[in-house]
């Protein structure tokens, strides 16, 4: 998987390039839009997961949301994206991510959130292949979502699939300022994830640079400081 070229898409948006597909955005443009009924169902599902009602959350509110959108768009000829806000919605509308020049339709975040929440539930049940599949569905709808990229990266990291983990963590870093409500934290998660993978690949200088980049975002961040200390200990053992 290759990192998505955010700069290219941003330039395309600003230039209103001729290849831009016809796009329809169904999103409340206000700064603090009220959550949709489907978003509220996803939140209910997350609360149920936290309360230990994991399979009930999957079977009822989360799958209800998924089924609603899958039925609604089952015969749509448009490419559908699920955006958190105006920033990523405009990028999905302007970009040609799938190579198709057809119609693009951008809806709110609930559909991708429901897949992500089901993935979270499956992870809590140690059903890691199901977790990966749900996160991939979420990212198919929201490829710029930093949180979803980070969480899929973690799944690949557990499988020791370092190239996939690194690619998704790089996306998490790149898109944190666009799609993450808590951008500094999400960006640091992505940077620390890259650092971990690079240590596993014995690229200690590159790994340390990632942890230090996190410290620029969040000074004195304890996990990054601890990992830098670990890298320094590894260097000593090599001499």
Please tag this protein with its features.
239 residues, mainly alpha, Serine Threonine Protein Phosphatase 5, Tetratricopeptide repeat, 2 domains, three-stranded parallel sheet, 11 helices, 3 strands, 5% strand, disordered N terminus
How would you characterize this protein structure?
With 239 residues, the protein is mainly alpha-helical. It has two domains: 115 residues, no CATH class; 95 residues, Alpha Horseshoe (Serine Threonine Protein Phosphatase 5, Tetratricopeptide repeat), CATH 1.25.40.10. Helices cover 67% and strands 5% of the residues. It has a three-stranded parallel β-sheet with strand order 1-3-2. The radius of gyration is 19 Å and the shape is globular. The N terminus is likely disordered.
Low-confidence segments? 1-18
Query: In percent terms, what proportion of residues is strand?
Result: under 5%
Order of helices and strands: HEHHEHEHHHHHHH
Rg is 19 Å
Task: Tell me roughly what share of residues is in helical segments.
Answer: 55-70%
> What is the total tally of β strands?
3
Counting DSSP H or I runs of 4 or more residues, the number of helices is 11
Strand order of the largest sheet: 1-3-2
N-C termini distance? 36 Å
Give the structural class.
mainly alpha
Major β-sheet, in short?
A: 3 strands, parallel
Q: What would you call the shape? A: globular
Number of domains: 2
Mean pLDDT: 89
């Amino acid at each position: 998987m290759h990192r998505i070229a955010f700069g290219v898409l941003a330039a395309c948006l600003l230039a209103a390039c001729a290849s831009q597909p016809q796009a329809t955005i169904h999103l409340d443009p206000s700064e603090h839009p009220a959550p949709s009924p489907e978003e509220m169902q996803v939140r209910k599902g997350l609360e149920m997961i936290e309360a230990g009602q994991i399979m009930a959350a999957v079977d009822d509110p989360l799958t209800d949301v998924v089924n609603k959108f899958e039925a609604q768009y089952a015969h749509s000829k448009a490419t559908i994206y699920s955006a958190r806000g105006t920033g990523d919605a405009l990028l999905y509308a302007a970009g040609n991510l799938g190579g198709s020049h057809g119609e693009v339709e951008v809806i709110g975040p609930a559909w991708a959130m429901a897949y992500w929440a089901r993935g979270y539930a499956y992870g809590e049940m140690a059903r890691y292949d199901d977790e990966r599949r749900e996160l991939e569905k979420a990212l198919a709808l929201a490829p710029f979502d930093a949180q979803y990229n980070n969480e899929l990266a973690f799944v690949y990291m557990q499988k020791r699939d370092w190239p996939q983990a690194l690619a998704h963590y790089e996306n998490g870093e790149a898109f944190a300022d666009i799609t993450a409500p808590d951008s500094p934290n999400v960006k640091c998660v992505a940077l620390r994830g890259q650092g971990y993978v690079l240590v596993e690949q014995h690229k200690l200088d590159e790994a340390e640079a990632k942890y230090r980049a996190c410290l620029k975002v969040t000074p004195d961040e304890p996990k990054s400081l601890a990992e830098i200390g670990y890298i320094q200990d590894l260097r000593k053992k090599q001499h």
